[in-house]
Each structure stands twice: as C-alpha cells, then as structure tokens.
Design brief:
The chain starts with 15 loop residues before the first helix and ends in a 7-residue tail after the last helix. 44% of the residues lie in helices and 0% in strands. With 39 residues, it is an all-alpha fold. The protein contains 1 helix and no strands.
C-alpha cells in the first residue's frame, strides 16, 4: 500500500476561504477525473 500526505500552502494574500473555494471548485474536479485515483 502506498500512502501520500501533502502539506499545502496558500498563495500569499489568498484568504483561507479563497483557497478552500479554489481547491473544491477548480482543483478537485480535475483530480477526480484521474481513473486510478482512490480515496
């Protein structure tokens, strides 16, 4: 089994809410299209 852990850093000047919105609305749909991705 391979496990990964990431530490994400917000861009300077980006609020937590902006980061969360970007992560959920822009990044997540791209990642979910990866066929071999498992939760």
């Amino acid at each position: 089994m391979i496990k990964l852990m990431y530490i994400l850093k917000r861009r300077e000047g980006m609020s937590r809410e902006e980061f969360r919105e970007y992560w959920l609305k822009n990044h997540a749909p791209i990642v979910l299209k990866m066929p071999k991705l498992r939760k």
